[in-house]
Amino acid sequence: MIPVINQPELRIKQGDIIKEVECIQDFSLEGGQVKLETIVFPYILVLTQDCDLTWDFDNRNRQDSSTQDKYLFSVIVVPLYNAEQFIAGEHLLEIGQRMQAFSNKPNKTDRKNLSNNENPRYHYLNFSDDMRMPDLVADFKHYFTLNVKKVEKIKKSNLVCSLPELYRELVSQRFSNYLSRIGLP
Fold first, then answer.
1. What secondary structure does DSSP assign to 91-133, as a single string?
2. Which end of the chain is less packed: N or C, by CB atoms within 10 Å?
């Protein structure tokens, strides 16, 4: 079970879980009108390092800031998928994508590796019952970025909770290990 922090802060923090976040998948210009294709993720997890988020927030809110070299353009996030839908491979059906299914038997190797965080691509989050949150899965292959100001605005009304420091460091380490793997053809 993941312990969580339910004390909202103004600034974006590494480990924030935010609900109902829209991501622009594609855009086009049709007849003088901009057409946007978006995906609304039920939950996202902020992965950007907390020190960078602190520097950005402090410098944006300082009256006497003579430089903006600490400002961030965007925040790295990863979608969190409902574990039941993820295991069935149905978590992206809304956008027409069927994904790999895992065994529906908890003791099978692929499913056990997923729920025990032994597969480097995924991170399984299991919340206590009092959180009223489903189990969630982060797929590190699906990370993306969002504008800092957009995340700040969404966080004000859609923050679910924040992961405690040690847990967010674990997720961050796993993400960076996955990202820095040596890709084989």
1. TTGGGT-------SSTTSHHHHHHHTT-STTEEEE-B-GGGT-
2. C
Q: Where are the domains of the chain?
A: 16-63+70-179
Could you tell me whether strands 136-139 and 74-82 are parallel, antiparallel, or unpaired per DSSP bridges? antiparallel
As a whole number of angstroms, the distance between CA 62 and CA 185 comes to 48
Q: Which residue has the tokens 């967010």?
A: 168
- Sign, CA dihedral 6-12-15-21, equals positive
Q: In degrees to the nearest 10, what's the CA dihedral of 88, 91, 148, 33?
A: 160
Reference 100, options 148, 139, 49; nearest CA is 139
Q: Which two tokens stand for residue 28?
A: 């086009």
Q: What is the pTM of this model?
A: 0.87
Can you read off the two tokens belonging to residue 31? 């007849």
Residue type, 112: K
> In degrees to the nearest 10, what's the CA dihedral of 51, 11, 169, 161?
180
For residue range 173-182, list pLDDT tens digits in order: 999 999 998 8
DSSP 75: E
- With tokens 């032994």, the residue in question is 118
